[in-house]
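This follows on from our talk about sequence and fold. Can you supply me with one protein entry, sequence and fold together? Could you add the entry underneath, on a fresh line?
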Amino acid sequence: MEKDRFLTLFLRHERELAGIARASLPDWNAVDDVLQESSLVMWRKIDQLQSDDEFIPWARMILRFEVLKYRRSCSRDRLLLDDDLISLIAVEASHEPSEQIQEQRTAIRDCLQKFSPEHQKLLLAPYSRDEAVKEIAEAAGKTANSLYKRLGRLRTKLHQCVRLQMRTA
């Protein structure tokens, strides 16, 4: 496979791979580290790929091994999931999303659009970086605690909207 084609495929699927890694790792810093290591392994083994269709299963397999390697290096941390659960998550992640999950994603996207841009940013902040809510609070001149309370209320409204939309779908 050409290196330019590999880069295109990796960048196209990087968010999906990061999501899989995040399900198994304790924080975004660990995800970044594992994704970087995984991309280096993929780059070295690029000759194994014959077609674009093979990329996702191949990349997931490499990512899985890098997650396990990272977890072994942090095995003393009690907050990590056990290896059997990681394997189960990896197997589940390798399947295509079910129709129900696709409907939930659509409902979430539709409901998020009903919120103001400021509220959308706040709702998505905890999933972008660990310190995002605190940074937003500081920039707005508010306490992090008050912003977390607002976030809780917004999540409740989002949840209600998604449940209602799922019932009508």
Summary: The two ends are 42 Å apart (CA to CA).
